[in-house]
Amino acid sequence: MKATELLKQQHGEVSRLFKAIEKTDDPAEKKSYFLELASNLVAHDGIERKIFYPACEEAMGMDDLLGEALVEHGVVEFSLYQASQALGKDDFEYKCKVLKELVEHHVEEEEKEFFPKVEKALGKDKLESLGEDLDEAFQEERENDWQEPLFENLRQVLAGVLKTVPEEETQPKAKVSGKSRRTA
Ligand SMILES: [Fe+2]
Ligand SMILES: [Fe+2]
Known about the structure:
184 residues; 6 helices; disordered C terminus; mainly alpha
């Protein structure tokens, strides 16, 4: 599957989970949908930031759309952190709503503006092989705890880092998982 199609599919799953969270009044169900959402969002963030965006930068250079996307990932992560801290409390609903709106904005820009440019720049073969790498890395990331990578990413955002990837995780082909991911 093409990288952009795979990422769109993941956006669809995230949107489905937001709807499920909104729809249920059962606290246990709400929590379970939110934890599934958080795991999906952190894994999606990881594969885009570590594999997909660097491939885009290699093909297209560091343009404004890519810079904007990277900044938005940091904002989404902060909002995800806020919502996760409010889980089970009164302020969860509006914190989750802000998260949903931020994600929707980011996804819309990605799908309408960024992906069409990327598809032209990368070409069919590269999109297919990148799609395989992304899929594999996503499955691996989903097996790990999502909180530790989220906290680590937020530490980097607060330190002013836009796109740094820990060195051991870039070898040999931008592996997403790392030792630290299993310690949370
Ligand atoms: Fe993104
Ligand atoms: Fe995305």
